[in-house]
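How a chain folds remains the central question behind the approach discussed here. For one protein, we set the task of working out the structure tokens from the amino acid sequence alone. The sequence in question and its structure tokens are set out directly beneath this paragraph.

_____
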Amino acid sequence: MADFSELINGVHRDGDAWTADVSDDWRQGRTLFGGLSGALCLEAAKRGFTDLPPLRSAQFALVGPAAGKITVRPSMLRRGKSTAFVSADLFGEDGLATHATFCFTAPRPSAYNYAIDAMPEIKTPEQSTPFSRKVNFAQHFDNRLAGGNLPFSKAADPTLLLWMRHRDEALVPSPTALVALADAPPPAAQVLFDQQAPVSTMTWAFDFLADDLETDGGWWLIRVSAESVVSGYSSQATTVWSSTGKRVLVGYQNVAVFG
């Protein structure tokens, strides 16, 4: 079993691409866990173009299963004075699995400063209830229920509020690590379920709102909320806060719901 930092440090160059050896403990069914696919795309983009400004936003299309040898090919789409757009295509043994587009931007002076959605007042991670999940990749993360409802509880409000962190003592906070963590919560639609049923992320987009990724004990508060579950698909919003209440990431996912 490979910790996240060990896996990322093992990414190596192969011609114009980057490859990774990923063990089965990072799988979700027949494919890699989607957050890891996104993290590998980001890592390849940063290694392929080493002078990039901070990451501001990303979009992912998870178009197929990622299995076997994993290869990522990054490409510079456009580079300006303060902004760089980079794409990355992740391939498995069956071809293209994930297409990513990243927007990296340098900070710029501004007279405006506005933010909404303060962190909810909730219990600390130590006071919150641990829970486990029956998917391979989940063993790499600590999960504590801080609010909302558990998966398979048939509750009316499909929202989870979780403290989460990597189970990797060697991990240094980074955008790559947070990308993986932000996709680690159970899909919020599973709150409505009365039994286990397959789910699969189709598309995922997020914005980084801060460059400072420090947080106490590696813990991040993550809220996932299904805004719609209809016709076999769920639209889900995600917000991530640091332990000090700084909102650092907001995102949106489209999740296929089978069952």
Summary: The domain at 4-107+129-257 is CATH 2.40.160.210 (Porin). The chain is about 10% helix and 40% strand.
